[in-house]
Amino acid sequence: MSATPNRPIYLDCHATTPVDPRVLAAMRPWWEENFANPASIEHAMGRAAEEAVEEARGHVAGLIGADAKEIILTSGATEANNLAIKGAARFAASQGSDRRRVVTFATEHKCVLESVRDLAAEGFEPVILPVDGDGRADLDALRAAVDDRTLLVSAMAVNNEIGVIQDLAAIGAIAKEAGALFHTDAAQAAGRIPLDVEEIRADLLSLSGHKVYGPKGIGALYVRRRPRVRLAPLFSGGGQERGLRSGTLPAPLVVGFGEACRVAAIEGLLDAGRIAGQRDRFLAALSAAVPGLAVNAPGADKVSGNLSLVFPGGVAAQAVIAAAPMVCVSTGSACSSAEVEPSYVLRAIGLDESRARATLRIGIGRFTSPADVDQAAAMLADAWAKASSGTSRAAE
C-alpha cells in the first residue's frame, strides 16, 4: 500500500482552496499593468480599476442571486460575519430597538460564536442552540427560542468540519415569522451547493474568496436592500462600500474573487459531481484497508468533497497525520487546530473525547485527481497501521 509522490497531496480544501489558474490570470494585470486605486476616478487608470471592481462585484452577486449593489467587499468571511452580527445589533441598539436576543448554533464557526458572545457585554442576549447527532440545527429548539425579542438568527450554510448542509430555507422562515433578521455564513457553501438569497430569505450572507478557488484576503457580505437592512460599520474611515467598510479596495483580489465566483456559477454543479466521485473512491479504498473506519454525521446531507472520518483502535488522528507527512489533511477547523482540546463541533454532535481525537477531516476539491485519492488512501492506511501498532505497544 506504499505510495511515494514527489509532491504533497492536498486534501484540505475546507481550510483553503488552491487559486484557479483562470483566477490568477485575471488578477495578474491589476498588479503588473494597472495598479491604480479604484477610488481614484479622476484619471483613466483609476476609472479602469473601478470598472473592473464593479464587474467583479456583479459576478459575486450572481453566484448567490443578489444585486451587485447589495455586495459589500470585505477582507474575508470573518470580517463579514463580524460586520453582519455586530453591525446589525449595534444599529438596532442605536435606534432604540428592544430586540436584544441573538440566536445561533453550537457548531458555527468560531468568528460567529465569538461575535454573538461578545454582544453580551453590550446588553444583548446570546443564545447558542444545540444540533442533533448529525450536526443539523434543531428546528424545534429554534422555534422555541425565536420570538418578538429576537433581533437576528445566524446559521452556517455548510459546516467547515463535518460538511453538513443546513436547511437554510426552514431556518430563514422561522426567523422571518418572528420579524428577526436572518444571517448565514456561506463561506463553505458558495460554489459547492446552489445558493439563492431570495429562496432562503437571507438578509445577510457572508462569503470568502479563498474557499471558492480565489485569493485569500478578500470576501463579501450580502446586505439586503429591499426591505433595507441597516448596519453600523465596525470601524471609521473614508466611507467606502456604502459607508459600511472603509479602506482602499485591493483591485487584484477583488477581480480574482469575482472571476472565481464567475467560474463557480458556471461549473459548480459539474465540480460537485466529479468531486463526489473522488470522495467515494477515496472512502472505498481507505475503508477496505482500515476495518472499522467510521464517518461522522452519516445521516446528514453534506457537500460533496467532505469526509469527517473516525479511525478505529484508539488511534489519534494527529498520529496518523504525523505518519503520513506527504498527505495534507487536518483534524478540524484551521481556525481552531492549534487548540489542545478536541473540536467543539465534534463534541456538539455527541462524540466523546476519544472519538473526537480520532477524527480526521478530508477536503477533496476541484483539482484533486484519481491518482491523488488513491495515493492518499494508501498512505493514510499505512500511517494508521503504524500508529495503531505504536498504540498497541504503548498499552502493553
N-to-C span: 27 Å
Quick one: biggest sheet?
7 strands, mixed
CA gyration radius, whole angstroms: 22 Å
Task: State the name of the first-level CATH class of the largest domain.
Answer: Alpha Beta
Estimated structural class: alpha/beta
Indicate the CATH architecture of the largest domain: 3-Layer(aba) Sandwich
Feature tags:
about 40% helix, 13 helices, iron-sulfur, PyrdxlP-dep_Trfase_major, Aspartate Aminotransferase, domain 1, 2 domains, about 400 residues, PyrdxlP-dep_Trfase_small, aminotransferase, Aspartate Aminotransferase, domain 2, alpha/beta, disordered C terminus, iron
Could you characterize the architecture of this molecule?
It is a single chain. This protein has about 400 residues and is an alpha/beta fold. It has two domains: about 10-20 and about 270-395, Alpha-Beta Complex (Aspartate Aminotransferase, domain 1), CATH 3.90.1150.10; about 20-265, 3-Layer(aba) Sandwich (Aspartate Aminotransferase, domain 2). Helix content is about 40%, strand content about 15%. The chain has 13 helices and twelve strands. The strands form three sheets. It has a seven-stranded mixed sheet, sandwiched between helices. A three-stranded antiparallel sheet has the order 9-10-12. α8 links the parallel β6 (about 180-185) and β7 (about 205-210). α1 runs antiparallel to α9, α3 (about 45-65) runs parallel beside α9 (about 250-290) and α4 packs parallel to α5. It is globular and about 65 Å long. The model is unreliable at about 390-395 (pLDDT under 50). It comes from Roseomonas nitratireducens.
